[in-house]
Amino acid sequence: MTNIKDYDNNITPNWCPGCGHFSIQRALQVVASRLEIPNEKMMVVSGIGCSGRISGYMNTYSFHGIHGRSLPIAQGIKASNKDLTVIAAGGDGDGFAIGLSHTLHAIRRNMNVTYIVLNNQIYGLTKGHTSPLSEVGFQTKSTPTGSLENPIRPGIVALSNGITFLGQGFSAYQEQLIDTIVKAVQHDGFSLVNVFSPCVTYNKINTYQWFREHLVKLDEDEGYNPQDYQMAMNKLIETDGLCTGIIYQNEGTPSLLEQLQPKDASALSKMDLQLSKDHFNSIINQYR
Amino acid sequence: MNKSMSLLIGGIQGEGVISTGVSLMKALSSLGYYVYEKRDFSSRIKGGNSAITIHAGIEKKLWVEDQVKVIIALDDDTVKKYYHLLSSDGIIFYDAALTLDFQLPEKIKLIPLPITEIAKASGATLMKNTSAMGFISALLGITADNVTSAIKNKYKHKGEEIINKNITVLKNVFQYAQENLKEYQTLKLTPANKISRPLMMGNDAISLGALAAGCRFIASYPITPASEVMENLSKLLPKHGGVALQVEDEIAAVNMIIGASYGGTRSMTATSGPGLSLMMEGIGLAGMTETPIVIVDAQRSGPSTGLPTKHEQSDLIGLYFGGHGEYPSIILTPTSVEDCFYATMRAFNLAEEYQCPVFLLSDLSMSLSHQTIDELEPHRIQINRGKLYQPNTGQEEYKRYQLTEDDISPRALPGTAGGLHHTTGLEHNELGFPNDQPGNRRNMMDKRMKKTAPLQENEEIIIHSHQRDVLFLSFGSTYGVIKGAMEIAEEPLDYGYIQMIKPLPTQQLKRILEKYKHVVIVENNYSQQLATIIKSELGYHEKIHSLTKYDGTPFTLNEIITEMGGWI
């Protein structure tokens, strides 16, 4: 195992004291060290908002893109160099408002990328606006009388669209979060880990205490089988999505790149780009 | 015998009119003729009328004549819509199965041909395209053998039986022509030199240019008139180890190629105006992070959905000043199909040499018009990957955005030991980390904005001189018709095209504007976009004049000649 510190770039995060994101940052570093990922082979891509800063605190290659687009960037990097371990991260606005379509299509596409949602059910960096994951009645500066719109159910949305790995975590349950992310990274296909990460400044409803009272830990449920699609769906409905651990995993579906390229093919970025004259001519001849 | 011939084939859209025209052009190109095509189609799959105008001749031309000598009508609409294009000695050949129950001017010469009848008698009405192609070939003097091989090629995936049925159609058509169409021998083309040349459209050449340039990733969303680039590369890239993805939207497309290119793979997307508008934020990210990307913009009439199947050159200003904030980019404007190939290869080099977005600005007429082309030389342009970080003895900390003499810093590709760095769309310091200090901001803005400045000294304007003091300047496919007008004019003016609009080749332009009394800029948009850019960068308002057209159709020879009249 490499040292956790090897994955820290010693920049002090600008999150509020007590923010759930600190725990997710640490979890990522622990995961990297447990899996002994060489720093230069690890890629962290993030979106915009408090969550987006996470890539800037990792001693790896890191890309802080634009709002809602961490998944397209991450998938592009993976397509380009399949030898990298690619982690995308973003907030609930990133993944379920502006970038919702990319989330659904990344699920369909099933590229070997791990997507971690730093979910605090609020827009923090804009100083407190409602999120598509905020509950009905949630009061913010943009919904002073309470949100009227139904929240998106990330777990059910992912599961119903054919996700091959779905996990959830809670910032205060670090060990479980680490285990879940380890399995997500090891999963050969697209993995989504939705992490409840309390915003201590703007979300006074979904607090650490609130989550402790409401969350169900699936790894403590002996009868729970994450290979069972129906059971996973039932659990999400039964708990209203408030469960943590590995919710669902399907190991039988090949990832996109596996279907597009032979297993021993080199990464796109390492290919010989020269085209022989003869070969070029054979292509041109199709236009005669 | 004719050295050249303009003809129009029209019929119900979706019934194979365009593909018949393309097969004919392929056959002509393989016999040594040069062809150029203009098409008229609408935004629907089946129904309505579509037509293809073909210019064929011994000499290479990049335009079609305003008038046509022959119209082949497979539906009534073709006759109604296009009879006025007929030259005074022109003839309309129409499918005898049509009723034509409408009035036409008496001077119009109408000849029925048993196009459907022969197809039906030989097996199926469906083969009327083959029948039509046979008739056109017979009229132009192409032998049955040559058409037969074209038909074999066209239907090679459909099996022996279909091929044989079509060959029977051809045989019967040629026999009919032999017996009944002798009086039209004057329509025959002068025999050509039999040098077989490829036939392709701009989008084909762009795809091949990308492959030859080492592009191994495309992410794209279908849109007229750019889709063929994605379609071609979806076939070609997997055979060369690459990946082509049709993605959820243009926003995903541009961000995905930013990721792929950052990852070290030459990557591109292809779109048209509406897609480009969606990409703008991502293009700014590429500008800010100094990530090389290549974007093909095949322009069509805008704004909004505009005229989605019609020609325009109106994205230029949007691209030139594009997006929010300021960042460098490069705009290349090829003028022919061959040019599309080389400009695409060049685009990938420039993107990596200057680490910025490069736009290959095509237009509908160029992207979708087939042309007979001269042989392409893939090794004329060598692949240059620009400055890349090589892991060294590890003396100094790697700085992704190191301030350098030429404002370009070596890129470290992810996976490279010793090159770890952060990349962000936030303003950043040399290491790549966010930094909002005024001094740093100034340095980084200067670095990014100045790095493409050396390109301003390039010679990017090609002029055909007749020693006159008036120059007609254009870009994209518009050049072809200007060349055409000048070639047939008694007193031709100087004319030329610009192949890189951003950065503007200011040194050369200054010399040109000093030399000429008047420069007439010809472009397909309302607001004189190229003229506006040149005026804003260089002045010379009194010398710069504009000829614009924005009705969805390219310039005609007559329009250029009329404009020339005012300058002679």
UniProtKB/TrEMBL annotation, chain A:
Cross-referenced Gene3D superfamilies: 3.40.50.970
Record flagged with keyword Transit peptide: no
Keywords carried by this UniProt record: Iron, Iron-sulfur, Magnesium, Metal-binding, Oxidoreductase, Thiamine pyrophosphate
Cofactor(s) listed: [4Fe-4S] cluster; Mg(2+); thiamine diphosphate
Domain Thiamine pyrophosphate enzyme TPP-binding: residue ranges: 48-195
GO molecular function terms noted in the UniProt entry: 2-oxoglutarate synthase activity
Pyruvate ferredoxin oxidoreductase beta subunit C-terminal domain segment(s): 199-261
E.C. number: 1.2.7.11, 1.2.7.3
Entry-linked Pfam families: PFO_beta_C, TPP_enzyme_C
Keyword Metal-binding: yes
Cross-referenced InterPro entries: 2-oxoacid:Fd_oxidoreductase, OFOB, PFO_beta_C, THDP-binding, TPP_enzyme_TPP-bd
PANTHER family to which the protein is assigned, alphabetical: 2-OXOGLUTARATE OXIDOREDUCTASE SUBUNIT KORB, 2-OXOGLUTARATE OXIDOREDUCTASE SUBUNIT KORB-RELATED
Name of the protein: 2-oxoglutarate ferredoxin oxidoreductase subunit beta
Organism: Alkaliphilus hydrothermalis
UniProtKB/TrEMBL annotation, chain B:
Stretches assigned to the Pyruvate flavodoxin/ferredoxin oxidoreductase pyrimidine binding domain: 209-444
EC number: 1.2.7.11, 1.2.7.3
Source taxon at top rank: Bacteria
Enzyme class: oxidoreductase
Pfam families: POR (PF01558), POR_N (PF01855)
InterPro entries per the UniProt record, alphabetical: 2-oxoacid/accept_OxRdtase_asu, Pyruvate:ferred/Flavod_OxRd, Pyrv/ketoisovalerate_OxRed_cat, Pyrv_Fd/Flavodoxin_OxRdtase_N, Pyrv_flavodox_OxRed_cen, THDP-binding, Transketo_C/PFOR_II
MF terms (GO), sorted A to Z: 2-oxoglutarate synthase activity
The entry's keywords: Oxidoreductase
Ranges of residues in domain Pyruvate/ketoisovalerate oxidoreductase catalytic: 14-173
PANTHER family given in the database record: 2-OXOGLUTARATE OXIDOREDUCTASE SUBUNIT KORA (PTHR32154:SF20), PYRUVATE-FLAVODOXIN OXIDOREDUCTASE-RELATED (PTHR32154)
Protein name: 2-oxoglutarate ferredoxin oxidoreductase subunit alpha
